[in-house]
Amino acid sequence: MVEPMYPSTRSDREVWLKEARYNLFNLLSPQVFIDLLTDSGTGAMSQEQWSALMSGDESYAGSQSFDRMKEVITSLCGFPYILPTHQGRAAENVLFSVMVKEGHVVPGNAHFDTTKGHIEFRKASAFDCTIDEASDTTLYHPFKGNLDISKLENVMDVYGKERIPMIIVTVTCNSTGGQPVSMENMKAVRKFADRHGIPVIFDAARFAENAYFIKTREKGYEERSIREIIREMFSLADGMTMSSKKDGIVNMGGFIALNSQALYREATTFNIMFEGYITYGGMSGRDMAALAQGLKEASTFGFLESRIKQVHYLGELLKEAGIPVQEPFGGHAIFVDATRFLPHVPREEFIAQTLAAELYLESGVRAVEIGTLLADRDPETRENRYPRLELLRLTIPRRVYTRNHMDYVAAALINIYHRREKITSGYKIRYEAPIMRHFTVELERIG
Q1: Whether residue 246 lies in the annotated active site
Q2: Beta carbons of 286 and 58 less than 8 angstroms apart
Q3: Which of 25, 171, 311, 333 is the most buried (most CB within 10 A)?
Q4: Through-space distance between the first and last CA atoms of the chain, rounded to whole angstroms
Q5: If residue 202 lies in a helix (H) or strand (E), which one and from where to where?
Q6: DSSP 120-140
Q7: Which CATH class name applies to 47-298?
Q8: Which of the residues 57, 203, 238, 337 is marked catalytic?
Q9: Catalytic residue among 66, 79, 96, 112
């Protein structure tokens, strides 16, 4: 589809942002010129996907579209047991309803917002075991999504096997800048998990992008195909949750894939309660048909190279202008280091959110904060959690924008960078939800 873009004046945007209570999630689509809020469900489907969509089987039970989707997932990832859900956080809700209990601890590599939210909602704790190199945006490390095995060992020593229901490996790791996990590290996590008898679950929303980075950055995988790498990746996991709105290139959908029939049977109960029957689970037949085709397309080198090189083009423009970004560039977005960009804004005034608001006011570009607002409050102390990184995520939808759009985004950020010394204050909270507050938070300007 071709969608219209809506130009606006700065005075328009000042009114709209104030009405949105300085939360960019509250902006209306026509109020946004270029939308880099997320790559989730915002990609453009191919003609083959639209063709598949028209042949969707909408049977309540036993849909042929489910059979086609299951066949593709099993062929690509190797898991025999599949449960469809309406999106990734629904997959987490179903699976964690089985696996995560009060008092559990769930180690992983920088759990993203919904993952951590579902863990903490169940009065369990998420432990970040990402390597320290990930928090230095100036340092080059090819796999800043890697887990630190010594940190996993420490969690084991402190809490014991009985309180650890799973290890979560997020590929790619969104919170560290869309950074990949190496095959070597996945093997090390698998070895650790086998030694202690703990399941490994992949949060696999961007698994194909992770496979691309393994092919292009990890020794020994240069001649392997993307699909061969994907199959090896998932051979190191016991199961996966998937937001199909990312590397499935569909507008809505998700799934759980598992090796264990016993775990699958437990999860079906919650899938039926929360989502729908086990052969549609919150997805229409046409969406399952489009997803089956989208997974095929997303797992090709040509698509991935085109998609990731567009992201890196924007990164190079910003880097050449001296703007601090997470390096090396990730797969789905460029992450601006907001702390280095706005050194005079206090951290308690939400540095990355301040930069996101400035970008919108400057240009009509909507981006998203990956920082203190998203990190939420500590469930026990209710104090703000200040993450090691305050990032502005410029998230590129798949097959939507052109290089001209990237040039415009870069020019807007460069303009702000030239006047950054004048930005000395940020925002305070007027209203926040008790969990995952960043989606609905209401803010007030300071100064």
Answers
A1: yes
A2: yes
A3: 171
A4: 43
A5: strand 200-203
A6: HHTT-EEEE-B-GGGG-TTS-
A7: alpha beta
A8: 203
A9: 112
* Catalytic (active site) residue 205: yes
Is 203 a residue of the active site?
Answer: yes
Residue boundaries of the structural domains of the chain: 10-32+301-445, 47-298
Least Cα distance to 191 among 162, 226, 167 occurs for 167
Say which DSSP state 317 is in: H
Per-residue pLDDT tens listing for the chain (447 residues): 788 888 999 999 999 999 999 999 999 999 999 999 999 999 999 999 999 999 999 999 999 999 999 999 999 999 999 999 999 999 999 999 999 999 999 999 999 899 999 999 999 999 999 999 999 999 999 999 999 999 999 999 999 999 999 999 999 999 999 999 999 999 999 999 999 999 999 999 999 999 999 999 999 999 999 999 999 999 999 999 999 999 999 999 999 999 999 999 999 999 999 999 999 999 999 999 999 999 999 999 999 999 999 999 999 999 999 999 999 999 999 999 999 999 999 999 999 999 999 999 999 999 999 999 999 999 989 999 999 999 999 999 999 999 999 999 999 999 999 999 999 999 999 999 999 999 999 999 998
Candidates 289, 294, 118; CA nearest to 201 is 118
Given the residues 70, 111, 246, 296, select the one marked as catalytic. 246
Of the listed 90, 91, 126, 205, which one is catalytic? Answer: 205
Q: Is 431 a catalytic residue?
A: no
Choose, from 60, 309, 418, 428, the residue flagged as catalytic. 60
Q: What are phi and psi of 171, to 5 degrees?
A: -125, 120
Q: CA 302, CA 300: separation in Å to the nearest integer?
A: 6
Kindly report the CA angle at 23 between 20 and 28, in degrees rounded to 5? 50
Q: Is 193 among the catalytic positions? A: no
Q: For the CA atoms of 120, 251, 35, 21, what is the dihedral angle to 10 degrees?
A: -50
> Which residue out of 35, 39, 57, 113 is catalytically annotated?
113
What are the backbone angles phi and psi of residue 55, rounded to the nearest 5°? -105, 15
Find, among 206, 232, 196, 220, the residue nearest to 308 by Cα: 206
* CATH number for the segment(s) 10-32+301-445: 3.90.1150.10
